[in-house]
Amino acid sequence: MSGTSSPEAVKKLLENMQSDLRALSLECKKKFPPVKEAAESGIIKVKTIAARNTEILAALKENSSEVVQPFLMGCGTKEPKITQLCLAAIQRLMSHEVVSETAAGNIINMLWQLMENSLEELKLLQTVLVLLTTNTVVHDEALSKAIVLCFRLHFTKDNITNNTAAATVRQVVTVVFERMVAEDERHRDIIEQPILVQGNSNRRSVSTLKPCAKDAYMLFQDLCQLVNADAPYWLVGMTEMTRTFGLELLESVLNDFPQVFLQHQEFSFLLKERVCPLVIKLFSPNIKFRQGSSTSSSPAPVEKPYFPICMRLLRVVSVLIKQFYSLLVTECEIFLSLLVKFLDADKPQWLRAVAVESIHRFCVQPQLLRSFCQSYDMKQHSTKVFRDIVNALGSFIQSLFLVPPTGNPATSNQAGNNNLGGSVSAPANSGMVGIGGGVTLLPAFEYRGTWIPILTITVQGSAKATYLEMLDKVEPPTIPEGYAMSVAFHCLLDLVRGITSMIEGELGEVETECQTTTEEASSPTQSSEQQDLQSTSDQMDKEIVSRAVWEEMVNACWCGLLAALSLLLDASTDEAATENILKAELTMAALCGRLGLVTSRDAFITAICKGSLPPHYALTVLNTTTAATLSNKSYSVQGQSVMMISPSSESHQQVVAVGQPLAVQPQGTVMLTSKNIQCMRTLLNLAHCHGAVLGTSWQLVLATLQHLVWILGLKPSSGGALKPGRAVEGPSTVLTTAVMTDLPVISNILSRLFESSQYLDDVSLHHLINALCSLSLEAMDMAYGNNKEPSLFAVAKLLETGLVNMHRIEILWRPLTGHLLEVCQHPNSRMREWGAEALTSLIKAGLTFNHDPPLSQNQRLQLLLLNPLKEMSNINHPDIRLKQLECVLQILQSQGDSLGPGWPLVLGVMGAIRNDQGESLIRTAFQCLQLVVTDFLPTMPCTCLQIVVDVAGSFGLHNQELNISLTSIGLLWNISDYFFQRGETIEKELNKEEAAQQKQAEEKGVVLNRPFHPAPPFDCLWLCLYAKLGELCVDPRPAVRKSAGQTLFSTIGAHGTLLQHSTWHTVIWKVLFHLLDRVRESSTTADKEKIESGGGNILIHHSRDTAEKQWAETWVLTLAGVARIFNTRRYLLQPLGDFSRAWDVLLDHIQSAALSKNNEVSLAALKSFQEILQIVSPVRDSDKPETPPVVNVPVPVLIGPISGMSRPFVRTDSIGERLGRYSSSEPPIVTDELEDLNLWWAAWNTWYRIGSESTKPPVTFDKLTFIPSQPFLTALIQIFPALYQHIKTGFNMDDLQKLGVILHSAISVPISSDASPFILPSYTEAVLTSLQEAVLTALDVLQKAICVGPENMQIMYPAIFDQLLAFVEFSCKPPQYGQLETKHIANAKYNQAEWVALNYVPFAERSLEVVVDLYQKTACHKAVVNEKVLQYIIKTLRVPLSLKYSCPSESTWKLAVSSLLKVLSIGLPVARQHASSGKFDSMWPELANTFEDFLFTKRDADIVCEAALMAVIVKFF
Questions:
Q1: What is the residue-wise DSSP string for 688-742?
Q2: 1396: which strand partners?
Q3: How far apart, in whole angstroms, are the C-alpha atoms of residue 890 and residue 972?
Q4: Of 723, 816, 800, which is closest to residue 756 (Cα–Cα)?
Q5: Would you state the pLDDT for residue 526?
Q6: In the chain, what's the furthest Cα-to-Cα distance?
């Protein structure tokens, strides 16, 4: 007001008033003197007021009736010029607010008169507007009169006046309500108790209301009366009114001043009691209205039928629902139900169009929709309004496709159509024409021949109506084709967008609040704890209520939405429309997922999935879900049955790819359209952005993606990513250029989708894994029984998912690897290969991943990661095992140093390779083992060393590749060397581990069980190594046996000193003797069949050409090895309690071998015999203890404090160390010689058994008869002298007899003719064979021992003479070997298998010389005299002497002559001495007979000898 109350403005006002009055005075001077006078007195009055008052404006207002009077009189003249001048002056006064209430009343009365005279109508309207807008002095009747004036002017004949009056009426109505708002604002601070409006009391006086409110109330009430064609209460003088104008005014008031109705009960009452019944009443004829009917039951004087009223009613309804929903819950239910009815197919097109526009207005207001849901759908006995709206939209859209519009100008004459849809007028199949003819396609929906264009009607999220705004139209407008569809389409999109953004926003707030509360709750103060609990509880209640509303909203709308969207998706030919539909389905699916509404979520996802695949594609997963059953259901909308329409196959989309369906028996090809690809992208987007809420529907999504990937020909590559690849079989996939460029993008999105799984929570991740596993199982089922390319999508994506979730691999490792292990067992090689690829990649990635805490500190995780690698060992497919081993090799190369507790698993994988699994597998596994032995023994726990030994041993037993077996034996040697070098460390660690295990076992109350218990752990390790080598020593392959045997004995020889003394007991009994038993058994049962070749072109030497001969070599090697150990380690073995038993067992083995029918074995046995008797000893003198300690204690107890001592780890033991090992506080206990004697006598008995058995002639002879060889017999006899040294004290006559039998038998054995050239001297050489030498040596040893021995031994002399004389007889009569026929050496043929008798002449002659020598020494011995030795000598010599030249050798009888003379020269004096005893009585006749036989031979040539002999005899006698 500062502009009109400033001194300058006031001064100007006064001047203007005075000039107006002067002008008036001047104009009325002639015609209207009273007016002139009044004007002049008015000038004086103004001047007086100005002069007398400081507050000029207030004074003017006070006297305004007088001031205004001249102007009112001027208007009364009805002169246009004067009237205009007066109205202008009055307006000026009004604008300065100097008009009092009385003056205003007078002005209005004057204006009324002018109006009735139809004068200055526009100026009147202007004046009224100025009067009411500049001040608030006009009230009640005056105000109503002014308003009626405007209404009256609205119904004049002049259009300009009508329109101006209409605008003025609108403004005046607004002013009335603005005044009321301002009044409320002024009285806002004064709290009043609202007084309830009494029922139907007098409407004209509402005592509770303030003045402005009362005016507004009366005005609004009369507007309702007028629209209802009733007489007004307040607006007295109304003559005419249109319902359309009244409805517009009602709408503007309701829309602009909602707070008036919400804050004042009186106005609320008007709404409920007047407005709503009015609207319902006006709607009722329209509900019954059908196309063609235009009658109306309204009695209003000027009422256009139907469209204007209906459209305005809908606008009023929109405002009522939008602004006063909370007041008019029941009424709104009726309105909404009416709106739904207006969408019915039998309503006119324009009615359906405005109804759908009205619904669109609600669809962009999610909070309003939420209120509908809470007020209706969630109430038990209420109409499900929200559900009905959505379903009505769905059925509306369906009806547009199913029922072609009829009776509408827009569609009845499409050719001449000129409206919005004119550009799309075309036959129903124009969509196809467009494609075929290359015409630019308009966006449209096309379904089963019905083609509906999509029009651009509004921006997203706003409901800009077209027909609801046509306030100037009287006739129903023409609705363009596609308009109603487009609005309904936008309704759906806006509805989805609104409710999803609203619910998700609220959900987000709830989650944020929960998070904040949780954080605050984690550190509460004592005082605020109670408060926090209370707020948390309130919050939870609030969340429960909110969640119930959200769920109800979704449950109410999803069916209808899905039905409509699915249909539109199928019908859409426009990429943008398709995108919007898919986005709506996606956001709904995501929302349902967040709210945990599984059925609806799956239904929307199914819809997208179906859209992604070709029509009628047989994908069972989509046909078995609950959502899919909708396709066969119908549901009711307002009593009307609506069927879900199944997708149309007549798609007019561009085909972008042709491929094979993924099926067991693919029938032909399927086509993918650009829309399928668009749906696929949406599906990917859904999974990528909303994976956390997909839950079980991952199955749907992934199944669909798998099929699409298959049709597009994407194949897995390293890491699980899918890359475009060529189809392996069937017609190749055909792709357009557009898709070819899209494929890498799709592949990339697919990979990103699974990469994003790292952001999923654990539960969602499990859903994803389960879905992939389930999908993979289906692919596996499909791949059974055929070799076609399987679908590897699921396996590849399991790999990809596992790789990106390494940071929490524990939670998914078991289901993931468990399934991949199943895949690895599949009969289809390609599927199997990928299963193994995925599994090994995951294991390698898991081991190299930087876990927190690291694997070295998380043994459980490391074992978990390695376990599937071990599980792969249970799979028999070689390709899988190869992958497994390659993986092990890579793990060793990259992680070998840090495997720690994982070693047993890794070694177990190598050891699990079986003999029958192919050379390449064994070779790869062995490569791993070599790497372990060469590089990783120091890094692994010592407890794993035994496993390494076992694994290395198992490779030795594999018979696929000899080189591997031999190399593995070499590895065992390397391992033993490692044990030796790191002995102390290994022993400490093993003892520590043993103690821990022992403790655990005691706690559990079980006995600790391990091989070779109770030997110390380190010794057990050695024993396992020896046992493994022992197993290899009886391998079927000779080369392996030989190598293993050499290694075993070398190892025991080199490192045996590391063993605890008591452990030797185990070595002897469990390793060495066990081995000997097995070798002996195998050798004796070995096959004698000749082996032609040793594999390939290798020829076999005749000495090894049967299995028996090959085993013979093993026996030789084993026996020699054991004997050597007995020899070199006797100082260790003898103190063991059962050494004598061991000695017996060893002798038994030697005897078995010596009696073997194989010359090589038997001879070697004797050599071993010689070794254990220490005839030949490999031990250096310095190493021999001077007095080997013999501790007689039972096994395996040790004496003294030895158990506490640490063992020296030295390869060769000094004597001091050896003695120290058995040292104690007392000197070593040395047993008497008895034990040693027993050992030697046991050896003698064995020797005797060997000798007697081997030299006993066989009963029958044939070509295969075994006859011992000369070297064997020689070796046998050579043993005796050494053996005799130990047993001579107890050697008696019986033993001598036994010896004699053996010597005689041995010397009698013939030789084979083919061996004779290498053994026998030529016949002419007088040389002894080695055997003959040995026999004489044995007797010589005996004779010397008797000579120096005690008296009782000398009785053996006669026996020795007997033996020697028997040999002398061989000169003339060679011994017979059983019944064997022998040939004379001269007659033998070397190349025939004949037996040849030896040349015994030299042996017999040497024996004779020994006899003569011995007799010369012993002739006087009592035993020699008593036993008539001389007589026997003479008797023996009688044979050669009598034969003379008939002797085999001439030298024999000559030697016999000289020997006889020597013997007689010594013997006859003895005979004379003992003549009286009669002991020589029988000798004389024998001597006489001898001479006789010699002298009286028939040959003259003997005369010389005889003469000589005769001379000697004469002289002798």
A1: HHHGGGTGGGHHHHHHHHHHHHHHHTEEE-GGG-EEE---SSSSPPEE-HHHHHH
A2: 1311, 1383
A3: 23
A4: 800
A5: 52
A6: 232
Q: In whole angstroms, what is the distance from residue 556 CA to residue 545 CA?
A: 16
The two tokens of residue 619 are 């994908």
Count of alpha carbons within 13 Å of 493, Cβ hemisphere only?
Answer: 22
pLDDT of residue 1334: 92
DSSP per residue, 658-696: EE---SSS--S-EEEEHHHHHHHHHHHHHHHHHGGGTGG
Per-residue confidence (pLDDT) for residue 1092, from 0 to 100:
66
Instruction: Provide the pLDDT for residue 1094.
Output: 56
User: By C-alpha distance, which of 898, 919, 980, 995 is closest to 945?
Assistant: 980
**CA 735 from centre of chain:** 33
Q: How far apart are CA 1471 and CA 84, in angstroms?
A: 205
- Say if residue 1271 is exposed, middle or buried (CB neighbours under 10 Å; 0-12, 13-18, 19+): middle
Q: Which two structure tokens, joined as six digits, stand for 680?
A: 């696929």
Q: How many CA atoms lie within 13 A of 597 on its CB side?
A: 25
The dihedral of CA 1008, 1009, 1010, 1012: what is its sign? positive
Share above pLDDT 70 across residues of the chain, in percent, rounded to a whole number: 80
1367 in Cβ contact with 1452 (< 8 Å): no
According to the model, what pLDDT value does residue 1497 have? Answer: 66
Contact 808, 759 (CB under 8 A): no
Instruction: Quote the tokens at residue 154.
Output: 């609205």
**Cα→Cα distances 998→377, 1006, 1016, 1386, Å:** 73, 9, 12, 78
Angle between helices 762-783 and 793-804 (to 10 degrees): 150
- Distances in Å between the Cα of 732 and the Cα atoms of 668, 729, 1012, 1137, 1146 are 11, 7, 66, 83, 77
CB 177 within 8 A of CB 158: no
| 752 contact partners, CB below 8 Å, separation of at least 6 | 688
DSSP 272: I
Rounded to whole angstroms, the Cα distance separating 260 from 1164 reads 128
How far apart are the C-alpha atoms of 1494 and 389, rounded to whole Å?
155
For residue 1099, give the 3-state DSSP assignment: strand
H or E element in which residue 979 lies: helix 962-981
Q: DSSP label at 1068?
A: I
Cα separation of the two ends of the chain? 196
Report residue 322 as tokens: 């939008």
Residue 1193's SS3 state is strand
* pLDDT at 531 (0 to 100): 63
Pairing of strands 714-716, 634-637: unpaired
Phi, psi of 643 (to 5 degrees): -90, 140
Which residues, 6+ apart, have CB-to-CB distance to 1514 below 8 Å? Answer: none
Sites in the chain below the pLDDT cut of 50: 1, 193-205, 292-305, 406-440, 625-651, 727-730, 1176-1232, 1323, 1390-1391, 1393, 1500-1501
| Percent helix, percent strand, percent coil in the chain, to nearest 5 | 70, 5, 30
User: Is 879 buried (19+), middle (13-18) or exposed (0-12) by CB count in 10 A?
Assistant: middle
Contact by Cβ (8 Å): 158, 234: no
Q: Considering Cα of 1465, then 1470, then 1476, then 1482, what sign does the dihedral take?
A: negative
Angle between helices 140-154 and 101-116 (to 10 degrees): 20
Beta strand 722-724 with 734-735 is: unpaired
- Of the CA atoms within 13 Å of residue 710, those in its CB half-sphere come to 26
Q: What is the pLDDT of residue 934?
A: 92
Q: What pLDDT, on the 0 to 100 scale, is given for residue 1041?
A: 92
- For residue 880, which amino acid is it? I
The 10 Å CB-count burial string (b at 16+, else e) for 1479-1503 is bbeebeebbeebbeebbebeeeebe
The reply to whether omega before 1014 is within 30° of 0 (cis) is yes
